[in-house]
Each structure stands twice: as structure tokens, then as C-alpha cells.
Amino acid sequence: AVGTSQWDQQQFKCELHAPQSARIAYQSPHHTTSMLTAAAFALGPGLQTPQPLCSSVDKIWLQCSGLYLVVYVLFYFVLFTHASPAKSCDKNCLSGKCINGSCVCDRGWVGDQCQHCQGRFKLTEPSGYLTDGPINYKYKTKCTWLIEGYPNAVLRLRFNHFATECSWDHMYVYDGDSIYAPLVAVFSGLIVPEIRGNETVPEVETTSGYALLHFFSDAAYNLTGFEIFYSINSCPNNCSGHGKCTTGNSIASRVYCECDKYWKGEACDIPYCRNNCGSPDHGYCDLTGEKLCVCNDSWQGPDCSLTVPSTESFWVLPSVKPFGTSLARASHKAVVQEKVMWVWPHPEHTELNPSSSTQDDIYMFGGKLEAGSGNVTDELWVFNVPSRTWQRRSPVVGPPAQAQIYAVEGHSAHCALLDSGEAIMVVIFGYSPIYSYVSNVQEYNLKSNTWLVPETKGAVPQGGYGHSSTYDSASGSVYVHGGYKALPANKYGLVDDLYRYEVNTRTFILRESGFPRYLHSAGLLSGTLLVFGGNTHNDTSLSNGAKCFSADFLAYDIACDEWKLLPKPDLHRDVNRFGHSAVVSNGSMYVFGGFSSVLLNDVLVYRPPMCQAFLTEEGCVKAGLGVRCIWNRGRCLPWEPSMKLLPLITVDERCYRFSDCASCTANTNGCQWCDDKKCISASSNCTSNVRNFTLCPVRNEQVCSKLANCKSCSLNPNCQWDQNQSECHALPAQQCSEGWSQVGEACLRINSSRESYDNAQHYCKNLNGNIASLTTTKQVDYVLEELKKLQQQDKQLSPWVGLRKINVSYWGWEDMTPFTNSSLRWLPGEPSDSGFCAYLEEPQVSGLRANPCTATAHGLICEKAAGKRQTDTHPCSLHTNCANCTSQAMECMWCGSAQRCVDSTAYVISFPYGQCLEWQTSDCLAQNCSGLRTCSQCLEQPECGWCGDPSSTGRGLCMEGSYRGPMKRPAKQGQQSQSQDMSLEPGICPKDKGYEWAFIHCPACQCNGHSTCVNGSVCEQCRNLTTGPHCQTCMPGYHGDPTNGGKCQACKCNGHANVCQVLNGKCFCTTKGIKGDQCQLCDSENRYLGNPLRGTCYYNLLIDYQFTFSLIQEDDHHYTAINFMASPEQNLDMSINASNNFNLNITWSVGSTAGTISGEEVPIVSKTNIKEYRDSFSCEKFTFRSNPNITFYVYVSNFSCCFLSLLLVAAVVWKIKQTCWASRRREQLMRERQQMASRPFASVAVALDIRGENTDFLFSFQGPPKPIAMEPCSGGKAAVLTVLMCLPSGPSGLPPPGQSGLIVASALIDVSQQKPTDFKDKSQALKNRKALPPAHQGTCV
Predict the structure, then answer these.
(1) In whole angstroms, what is the distance from residue 303 CA to residue 571 CA?
(2) Scanning 200, 428, 750, 988, which has its CA 20 to 30 A from the CA of 491?
């Protein structure tokens, strides 16, 4: 179609409304536009690439009218002749226009080619397509489509293509014009037909006249996206090709399918009476009711083709369903009682785990409650079937008293009768929001009403969520398969484990299946464990978009101990699902409900082969897949698990995967634990072996490794939590080795040797410890008590402790803890000026004395860490808002739509059906719509709409709403109301008063109330101290949030800054050493003194010392000045230099207190634009001899441009040398040497390449020379690097006599770019979405 003509042809529609470009149909929006480009250039080189508006199946159609073509060509040449040449785009603009060489995207599209959706769309045509774009969707995509029909029209969505990251990227479909409408489907993963020719492309129906689709993707993986066809008032699935679409008589304009013969159903997709039911011998076709086969007594199957009993299995899809689609459900539980299947309940209600104990009672434990923020309960309820009544039990916890009863979800439960006659309920695994994945078994005694958490034997189990379990009463065993679990190294994912738990002996036997999955179902028939469906998705990067929903049918042959994959159900449509239930009754397995993008309410029935149908021994033994039979006395009987197992032939490969003795010897592979280090086949040779798990050593390490979070780890006294690795480890048997004493969480050791402080430090390091920092009262009390005991034995010690002088007035412990005079105190007159290290002299009064670090003390105290427990972290589920949820070191994730905080290892199982619209791990959004201040922010959230005020300047209010208007939630007491309770309230944004409701696009004028618009959308002149394209920020020198009419105010910086942080007003101080939000404080911790409210801050210089100041941190580029002060006793010399020019002013004053000048400040030097300066200030040169208290002030300024432009380490060096009082000078030099010499050292082996000699080294020295030391500064941004260098040796090649020819050289280096790499183990199909913690800014002075 060209020009303004229109053409409809069956399944596609093309429209053209403007002659500037040609729009033609092509095969699919996901295919390339090469043919479109060719068509465009056939008309002329100035024509843009056309936009696809519709699609067809096979061919491109182009129908041209001669008259229209002539008019079009003439019009084109006129345009081309008069138009000025414009720069073309390098790539095609797919959903936008090319302007000056770049793509300007249409509303709702982003990307350099406008190839990604991002925003909201409104569709009003009777039919059409919607897509995320022609290539993979982008990270963090949020797109919303509103399809508007007419009131109560039936709108159908057909998902022709859909591929997203399973469980993380979702498409939500609502039957209405907002997300508060009923949610009818949630699509995620890979949606493709199971069998070609028997396919059912997913189709969703809405009946309100609207459909709202919302797509969200996270920041991990992006796949090809989706193509969805929609149509209004069309027949379901086009009647599947087995009928015709006809207008109905009951409801005006509604259509329905008239099915062909032998097809039925709303979409004519259900075949019936195949092969005429084998009439007349096998059965007949009943056309009066459900239209199905009625088989004779000796025949069965959908078409009456199988005998009774049959040697073949078959699936049946009965037409019976619960009344109403509202009874569709997933994550429910089902149990059979007297041939009646009882089902409880659906998502967002209590998840029940029933098990029959008697003929009349059903017991249910735990699950997730509807009320509250995803609460998980430990409630126990009993349902009496005859009376239809519920009763809550209140059990008591049996011994040991400290046993923890876990409130769990995703668990399973069974009632069992012990050999002793006691009836118990066994609760298997599950997930606890407090204790994470639970690996314990819990037992409830029905008679004594007591709980018990028993210690199990055999294999060490790894508990999880969503496993299947089946109880076999004949053998007293529970078969537990699969699940979603936490794994080592902070990973999580699906597992394929199969455990056999023997209830009487409390023993786990392990067997792997090779089929990982969770939220599947299982049943036990004829000695075979049958597993159906489930979620099989692990990590997208490895599984290439594995389907979330599976129809896999697995069989575990208990007798032969082997897994087999059975044929999938051969029904008229796909039956993929997870979250369903399965029960066994009368020799058949019944599968009910589940989830496959929509909640299901159908029943699938599987009937296995019957052993009685095999008449020969050979046929009986080889009965086939899914059944195990034995030949006994001329008859074929089903094998039972209580019978003897068949012999196994094992190989080492089946044993290698077990890493501990118990799991190695408690499995069905026939393994032995060899030489206490490996698991091999029992038939292999081994020097020292264990074949019975009861003989295995203590297994604390294996038990601790299964505990998934700090809380559960802390419950086990033999375990400790490693916060850095997020793993639980076993405590060593002896936490403190011989010679050490455990005091609290540290090991202490007192030694009586006489050593200097440095030697004492070396002594402790050789013992893998450190000189003791006595920071706790318990440690101090222990040391004082031990010293008093030694005094009574005439062994008086005065040991070194790890306390050192950091600067003139600051003492600190070796572990960087500040010293406080609490448990230990200085003796009178201490610390002395000459002392830089501390020792404990008088234990009776806890007295400390300072001494030069080179002096010797009688004794020393060492410490090292004991195997200590980390402080418990707050469980994620207890956080109630986004800010405290996401502050816990990336361990938690916040879901705003559900108002829940969940552990990042349990996000998938917390929202298995896509209940979370969006999640955050940082950068929290507003908790509700009213917290969003601009229209663009408002419409990014699918639940919000924007009410613009009458000024039409961009001001307004964000509120919950729909396309038709704002919505309001009625206030309910005692519980949170559901989304469906929202009601339309147009009066909140009254149109008759000039307010404008925006739901699809924002109003054109967006100036935040600070300007009117010209040309509809351009802010004319920003007022109220604002600036920016939308008047969205404050002018320099002002701060505040001017969005939506907010105000700006001047920065308050006490004259020490010109600009401040725009949002919070924090000043960027221009003088180094001044800090505080308003530049009101001096950085006293780093030796800056003064009062910025009355003057400025000065760095207090020591005498006879050299200082280097590095201005390399992020905030340093604001500094333009730095000030110094010094108070020498007499004459002094000074020098100062920098990397580039600066201004310098030097003054002196008589009166000064802590940097605040009280007397007159007398200028001495004033220089501008200099690079260095040297001078001498003597009593003879200046007239301050009579003033004993002289303070010099040095002002360095105007250096910001130099420091910024060169990006070098700029240094200001001050060197003061006192010329009088030689004895005082020597004392100060000694103090400096002691301080420098007290740094910790370590030995370094250095290999020298001696000319002319072939030297064999133990190690290879390849690559550039290595430093002999690199001492990192605080923060990890800088370090002091030390190298060994050879001096020039002259012609002889030898150093001068008496010299080594080597020197040690050091330099300050930048190590900020050496970041750790983000490692991901590709071999484990697991997901880890945690970000690395941000690196902190460091300082090195």
C-alpha cells in the first residue's frame, strides 16, 4: 500500500498515512530490514528506511496505484530539489527519525538506533503487534503497553515469540487499565511449543475491554525478548484450524468457534472419539454429553484401544475441573483420604503440608501466611474430615531444651508409624526467612504433642525449598528429590539430589539423579518413584534460556537404583508446569493445578502398565519403563521397596563426587572411604578404608558447611560464621594451641624475656600473633591476675603491651583501636615526652608507663585470634523498608511492590510466580507514588500516574492510578488490603478545575513550576534561582531540590566555600583542614587547629620534621589553600615548594591559643606566583627576641589550577631546623628516629644477579623487577613502595671498598586502579547477583 491507501489481507494489516516514506509489511519485527532498505533506495537516496507497522507470514506484498505513484514521485522530486542536504545516520533509525546524523527516538523508544522500548505505549487499533524491539532487550528495561478496546470487549493476546531470563525478567498481563486490575498471566523464560504439529502457542484473554502489559528486566542477562499479537473480538486461537469463527447470538458483537467434527473446546483444540472409539467392539462415542469415548469393561484409554489390565501406560486429561477459574492454584498441597483428594490452598494463602495420620485427621504444619510481610509460620493445625472442623495444636518442645523449631515454607511432611508403635509427623527441610535453607528433619509426636529435632545419621543432607517427597509405608522410607538450595561459595541453585530417609533409624542415604529441578511433584507406583514437571531453570548464561516450566516425566527404579527419562504426556496440548501437586490412588497418579504463565485448574491422570497384564516371566521381568515387576509362582506382581534390592555394579566415577566419609558410605553407589581423603568404589583396592558410615569420624565440617546463613550457623556450638566469605565453618577442636590461654575471643600468651618493643613484636609475629592490644575488660583482668600470680612467685614482670604513640597527643593500640583510660591507666607523670611505646609496670594499680621503643622491658604479651563467632547479622526478612534492607552489605534485596526484604540467595523462591514487579539492592526508590517528584520519575513506576496542576508548568502530584484516572485504596483496619481493593477516584484530580491526568505520556511542558513554555515544551526562562533544561537544579552557590516547585537557598559555608552540594547543601571547603557540612570545624584528628567560625584552620607543624601533603583524593580538587602554624623556641630556617606555582604569605603573632590568633598578626613575607621559597628567621633579623611565645603562620593559596591540570601528587614541604639548645635538638632527633624505627618490618629474600657467575635459584625471576616491600596506606588507595637499587660501580664493576653498592629507595604510589576482578564460577550453573562493596576513599599522609 502506498500513499494513503489501505489494504487488509487475512492475518495482517498495512497502513500508510503520510507520503514521506513507504511502510510495507515484512515477515517479522525480529528480522532484519535489508529488504526494506532496498525498497527505499529504489525510490530515491533521500528516503529514510521505512518503519514496519505490520507483519505477514511469508511474502512482502506491495500494491501500487498508478495515479498515486505518479503523484508521489512528482511530490518527492519537488521535496528533494528544494531540501537542504542533511547529514545521514550511520545506522538505521528503527523507531525514530534521523536528524543531523543521529537518531531522535519516538516516544517510548531508546538506544542509538531507537531499538529498545523504554516507557509507555497506548494501542487502540483492532489488532496489531507489540515487541521490545528487533534485537535483544536491554538491561533494566521497563516497558508498559495499554491496549484499549471498547467496554467489555474480549481482547486476546497471542505470544508468538517469548524468550526472557527465567524467574528474573517478567511480562505481566492485567485484565484492566492498571496493575490494580486482576493479574491474569505472568510470562518468564522460554515459551516454545513442545511438539510441532501438536502445539499450543500461549494465548491470554481479557474481558474488561482493556489489557495492560508491563515488562521488567533486571541487570543480569538479556535475551531476544518477545513478539505478541493482539486482537479485539476474535475467536480463540483462530479456532485452531479445526473450526470457523462465527458471531454469537447471546452477546452483541461477541464471536465464538463452530468446531469441526471430532473437535471440541472453546478453541476447537480438543480431539474426541478418535478412531470412533474402536466401535463397536471396544466402545462407542457419546455425543450427548462431554463428547468422549465410553469403553467396554475390558478396554480402556482415551480411544478405548488398550486392554484391561494393559501392558502400556497412558495419560488422560479429564474434562472435570473445579468450579470457576478462581480455583486455579499453585504451591498448594494435596492428600488422598478414602479416594477423595483434598487440596489446600493457593498462593498468598497459608502453604499447607498435609499428611494423613489416621482415617479421619489431616495434619498441616508451617507455610507462608497471607497477613503481614511474607510471614512464615510454625503453626500446627489438624483438620477432622467427618466434622469438617479445624483445631490448632500447641505442641511443646521436647529435649534437648535448646532445640530450635523452624518455621518453614517449601518443605514437605509425612505421617509415619515407628516400629515402637509411636505415630509421628516428619517434616523434611524447607526455607526459613530467619535461618535460611534448613537441612534438619523435624519430628512431631502425635500422641505426646511434642516437637523434636533429631540428630540424623548417614549422608550429610543439604536442605532446600520446593523439593518433592514421597513416603513408602512398606519400607518406612521417605524419598526426597531435588529442590532449590544454598550451595558453597555463596551460590544458590537447583540440585538433583535424591535422599532416602529411613524414619526409624533416622538415616539419610544419598543418590544423585542428573535431573535438577524444584516445585515438581512425585508419586510412588509399583516400586517406581515417578517425578513430573517442575522448574528446571538454573543460570541463564549456561542454560541458554531454559524453560521455566517443564513437562519432564522421570522414573527412579528403586530395585535397580537407576533413573530413566519417560516419554512426556502425549496429549492434545502442552502440559508444562511447576508448583503443582500429585497424589497416588487406585494405581494411578493424579496431577492437579500448577503454573505455566497462568494458574492452572486442570487434572492430569497417569495410568502405568499393570504387572498383571504380563503373562510370561520374560515379559514380566522386562516390563518396561515406569514399572518394576517380579515373577512369583507363575504370576507377575508389582515389586515393593520392602523387597530385597538387586545387586549393583559400581565404578569409581559414581563415587568421586562425595567429599566426606558419611556421604561416601551412606549412598546407593557401593562406595568406600579410602585413606581418609577420597571416595572410591567398594571393589577398588584401598589400604585403609571405611565402608559403614557409623565408623566415620566426627563430621562437624560437613554439617557446618550446609548451614546457609549466620543465624543458623550460630545455633550450632561447633560452627562459626565467616562474614567475608559468607560461609559457615567448623570450629577447630583446640581454638588456642599449647602455651596460649583463651580469653574471650582471643588467645593470650605472657613471655618473660627481656626485649625491645620491636623484638617483642617480632617474637609475637613468629608465633602467628601480634603484640597484645588489651581492649576488653576480660583481657585486662586476665593479664593483671596472671602478673599478680607471678609476683607471688617472686617473678615480677613489666611486659610490653601493644600501645604506641601515633602523634604528639594521640596513643593507640596496635589493632588501630583508640586508647581510653578505662581498664588501664597511666601512672602519675606519664606518658613522658621521650616515650613512644607502653609497658605495664605496676599490675596492682593497672599502671602504664611510656618508654623509648628501643629500650628493653622485662616481658611481653602476645595475642592471636581464636576461632571466634562473628556478630550475628540481622536477617533480611526483619527489615521493614528499602533503606535498612539494602544497607546490609548487598546481602538483601528489597521488593517495593510486595514491601518485603528477602535474602539475595532466596529471591527466586520468595517470588516463584513473579510476584515482585521490581527489586533493588541499592538506590532505593520512593516507597509509594507520592514520594516521586517529577512526572518522568512517576511514569517509570507502573502503579503510578501524574496529576498536573492548572498552571501547566510541570508541577503536579504523583499518585496511584489507572488510565482512566487516579485510584484510592480504602482504609482497612487490622490487615493490608489487596490491589483489587483499589477503586477509581477521579475527584482527586478534577478535570473541571483545570487539572490534567497523565498516564501514558507526561504533559509537554515540564519546567517544575519555575517557568512557562514556548513552542509547547521549551522552558522560556528559569526563575527562583533554578537552571537546567527543565529548571530542575539550583544555580551554583545555591542548594535544594527545585523539582515540582521546590525552593533553592544559598549555601551556608562561613566564607570558606563558594559552592555546595546541590541537593543537601554540604559545602565544598576550599581550605584543606576545614571540614563539616558548613565548613565549621577543623580536622583536629589530622593535626589541624583553629576556629573557622572566627578565622581559619592551620596544620600544626612539629619541629625538625618533614611533611608531605597529597591532594589526590576525590574532594581535593575543591582546595585552593592550605595553612600552617609553628611555634619554634628560637631561630629557624624553612623551605617550601610545590609541583606548580602558588601564592605565599607568612605572618607571626605573639598570642595564640589552639590556632586562634588573639594578638596582632604581623606580616613578614608576601609572594605571588612562585614555585618554591626558602628563608631564615633569626632573632637578629626580626624584632621578636623579647617575645618568648612566637607563632608563625604560613598561607599557601591559589594552587587549584596546578593541582587539577597535572593530576600529580602535589607536595608542600615545610622543614624547620632549630639552631639553639643542642641538647634539646638531640632529644628531638632521637624521638624522631624512635618513631620511624618502630614501624613493623619483615624479612625479604633478595637474589642478586652476579656478573660472570651461573647461579641456580629456587624460584624463577621472570618479568620486571619486584619491589621488596609495599606498605598500603589506610583505605587502600595509596602505598609506599620500596625497591633495592644498585649504585653506579664505575669501570671496575665493583663498589668502592667498604660499601655494598646497594641502596634502599621508597616512593608513594597510586594503587587505586588495582581492583579485584568479579569472579564467577562457570562450572556451577548458579547465579550470584551480588555486587562488590564500594571501595572507600583513603588518605596517606
Answers:
(1) 12
(2) 428
